[in-house]
Design a protein that fits this description.
This protein is an alpha/beta fold and about 180 residues long. The chain contains 4 helices and 13 strands. The chain has a single domain, classed as Rossmann fold (3-Layer(aba) Sandwich). About 25% of the residues lie in helices and about 25% in strands.
Length: about 180
């Protein structure tokens, strides 16, 4: 699993800014074809290190008056932080977090970052288990955003791994 994680991180790092932008646009357009209008609260990560760019999705959900929350790391757990102000800081992992936030416990949709996934919607994350712990106590629609090359044939999940409900890539939606 660590070998696959390293391989996928290297492939993602090798993408140019133009490639990330072009592929992220295709992925965002596919997400917007999903029927998400009845979902009110969205937990979404702020992309970094060549992840699928989530900025356009964030702007879209804000324009639809959805409640937005972002991952905030508190020790060994992650919470959904709905920003109270526009202030931001960086977590110990380099991710962007709201400075002042209210914890949001009622989550309808969670966009889950990943390193790799398979057609059965099992995923490999960054290896710290933050999302699996969070998703265990927050039932919601789980959507993974990734590039086609991140979809592999088979991932053997651990007993604590939470599978995704939907995967969206530049060329397909896996439900």
């Amino acid at each position: 699993m660590n070998e696959l994680r390293s391989e996928m991180k290297a492939k993602r790092s090798a993408l140019s800014t133009d490639e990330v932008t072009a592929l992220s646009t295709l992925i965002t357009n596919r997400v917007l074809t999903l029927d998400l209008k009845d979902y009110n609260s969205v937990f979404i990560y702020r992309s970094f290190k060549n992840e699928v760019d989530t900025n356009r999705l964030i702007a879209y959900f804000l324009s639809q008056n959805k409640k937005l929350a972002y991952p905030v790391i508190k020790g060994d757990i992650m919470v959904a932080g709905a920003p109270k102000t526009s202030g931001e800081n960086h977590s110990k992992f380099g991710t962007v977090e709201p400075t002042l936030y209210q914890e949001l416990n009622d989550i309808d949709i969670c966009f889950v970052p990943l390193i790799a996934t398979d057609k059965n919607k099992n995923r490999i994350g960054f290896g710290k288990g933050y999302y699996d712990k969070f998703l265990k106590t927050h039932p919601c629609l789980k959507i993974g955003l990734c590039y086609d090359f991140q979809v592999v044939e088979n991932i053997t999940p651990n007993p604590w791994d939470i599978p995704l409900d939907i995967i969206v890539t530049e060329s397909k939606i896996i439900k």
